[in-house]
Write a structure and sequence with these properties.
Elements lengths: L7 E6 L3 H12 L4 E4 L6 H6 L1 H19 L14 H25 L3 E3 L3 E5 L2 E4 L5 E9 L3 E3 L13 H4 L8 E5 L3 H13 L2 E6 L10 H13 L3 E4 L3 E7 L2 E6 L4 E4 L2 E3 L3 E3 L6 H4 L22 E3 L10 H16 L13 E3 L5 E5 L2 H8 L3 E8 L2 H6 L5 E8 L4 E8 L3 H13 L4 H6 L27
Parallel strand pairs: 1-2, 1-6, 2-3, 6-16, 8-9, 8-14, 9-10
Antiparallel strand pairs: 4-5, 5-6, 7-15, 11-12, 12-13, 17-18, 18-21, 19-20, 20-21
Helix pairs in contact: 1-9, 3-4, 3-6
The structure holds NADPH dihydro-nicotinamide-adenine-dinucleotide phosphate.
Length: 462
């Protein structure tokens, strides 16, 4: 029997969404696979991101549903909310799911090392707790990212998204800094759970990079949820006081609060990973440089997921991990297509978006763009008295009117955009949308009955 040159065919650093998918698929192909994870298997998504966040969103939604049920004849006196019940239930589920991730790897024959791993050279990793070294023919880096905070005085008093899920008690007042995904989502969650929330953003419109009208709608969503949104201010100092914290801003204003959540972005976790020693190049952002096959500057080392800072979403990391397996272990070079990825922001109600924004469409195609929008109060909100509305926008290009962007804000937008994403990926046209018979009475039916924005007198053009 020939002796194996390396300990493993594949060593995966990081058991998050991308790493687990790749490790499992390689093991199923009969490869000898090692995986290292310094935290709980499952990664950001399962342990301190998408999954626990979505449970908190559901938690907040129940509060609103109870309140709004009065219009449907329900009595809702003596309602109360206990943060510790929700927090502990979520953690129980997180632990269960994390266990499933370990089992998936181990059942398929991968060896899971529950410790940090760092690169020693292009074929060697050191396991940092045991001190052991392991060699591998191919290495996959899938270590993800972590919250980044600006270096301001008193920053140690702030929490980041990782900490939110373990808060010992629900803050009466919360200051959320940032205008991105995480800031908008947690501001919505805590406002929904009864916390007085102020969201402070350095720009003038939330959700930088999204369609301009979506950004305006989300601004309205936050206000309707009782969030005090403050624009064009950046924090300069956080001071601890007897009664909480005082945060100073660059315009001279100060905000008192019980909890400061810094949601100011995430960065790839590439520090001290030994990338230099292994000959793996990183960009100035810290992201690992990869080609379309997720191969790094070191030919036997690949990287997938947030550590590459391409499109930082769980399903993308999973697809990149699967494409890596096709390329390296199935002799089928596969580049995951990063265009037209549908995604959602779980504000309350949420945003669903796929394809290009109107601004981007006009930059690319000039006047060869047609925009369809509508805004309406969904049926459910009429009896409940909820002020929330639905906004829909479809963007097409050319004479053929191929649909190149759909943007939704309102109930069920996250669910709808998954379906619409198929149509965009299939390059369907507005005529295809129009030929599709409506499902009545639904919110979604409006997507197949949209009129050009110019004809829709109720819509404000931005
Ligand atoms: P984002 O990049 O979306 O938002 C960061 C926010 O912080 C921006 O509003 C940014 O302002 C602001 N900011 C940055 N630096 C400073 C500073 N020095 N002072 C004040 N404000 C600052 O990052 P998130 O952390 O919200 O999310 C990270 C990524 O995680 C997302 O891009 C997304 O890919 C993923 N994610 C996806 C989710 C989903 O799919 N639902 C949910 C959560 C995260 P500016 O806009 O001016 O740059």
């Amino acid at each position: 029997m020939s002796k194996r040159k390396y300990d493993y065919d594949l060593f995966v650093i990081g058991a998050g969404s991308g790493g687990v998918r790749a490790g499992r698929l390689a093991a199923q192909l009969g490869k000898c696979v090692g995986v290292a994870e310094e935290s709980l298997p499952g990664g950001t998504c399962v342990v301190r991101g998408c999954v626990p966040k979505k449970f908190l969103v559901y938690g907040a939604d129940f509060g609103e549903a109870i309140e709004k049920a009065k219009g449907y004849g329900w009595s809702t006196e003596n309602v109360s909310f206990d943060w510790t019940v929700l927090r502990d239930s979520v953690q129980k589920e997180v632990n269960r799911l994390s266990g499933i991730y370990s089992t998936i790897l181990e059942k398929n024959g991968a060896e899971l090392h529950r410790e940090r791993a760092e690169l020693v050279d292009a074929h060697t990793v050191r396991l940092c707790t045991s001190g052991e070294t392991k060699t591998a023919e191919t290495i996959l880096i899938a270590v993800g990212g972590s919250p980044w905070t600006p270096d301001i005085k008193g920053i140690e008093h702030a929490i980041v998204s990782d900490d939110v899920f373990l808060l010992p008690e629900q803050p009466k007042r919360m200051l959320v800094i940032g205008g991105g995904y995480i800031a908008c989502e947690f501001a919505g969650v805590f406002a929904g759970l009864g916390t007085d929330v102020i969201q402070a953003y350095r720009g003038g419109r939330l959700l930088n990079g999204f369609d301009a009208e979506v950004r305006d709608e989300v601004g309205q969503v936050q206000i309707r949820n009782g969030i005090d949104t403050r624009f064009n201010i950046s924090p300069t100092e956080i001071r601890k006081t007897d009664g909480g914290y005082i945060v100073s801003f660059n315009d001279g204003s100060k905000i008192g609060t019980d909890c400061v959540l810094m949601a100011t972005g995430r960065r790839p976790k590439t520090d001290t990973l030994g990338l230099d020693a292994a000959g793996v190049d990183v960009e100035s952002s810290g992201a690992i440089t990869v080609d379309e096959f997720s191969r790094t500057s070191q030919p036997n080392i690949y990287a997938v997921g947030d550590v590459t800072n391409r499109v930082n979403l769980t399903p993308v990391a999973i697809r990149e991990g699967a494409a890596f397996i096709e390329t390296v272990f199935k002799d089928n070079p596969t580049a995951f297509d990063h265009d037209d990825i549908a995604s959602a922001v779980f504000t309350r109600p949420p945003v669903g978006t796929c394809g290009v924004s109107e601004g981007e469409a006009r930059r690319r195609y000039g006047d060869d763009v047609t925009v369809y929008t509508t805004q309406f109060r969904p049926m459910k909100n009429v009896l409940s008295g909820s002020e929330h509305r639905c906004f829909m926008k479809v963007i097409t290009k050319g004479k053929q009117e191929t649909v190149i962007g759909v943007h939704l804000v309102g109930d069920d937008s996250a669910e709808m955009i998954q379906m619409v994403g198929i149509a965009i990926k299939a390059k369907l046209t507005k005529a295809d949308f129009d030929a599709t018979c409506a499902v009545h009475p639904t919110i979604a039916e409006e997507i197949v009955t949209l009129k050009p924005r110019e004809l829709n007198k109720t819509t404000v053009v931005t």
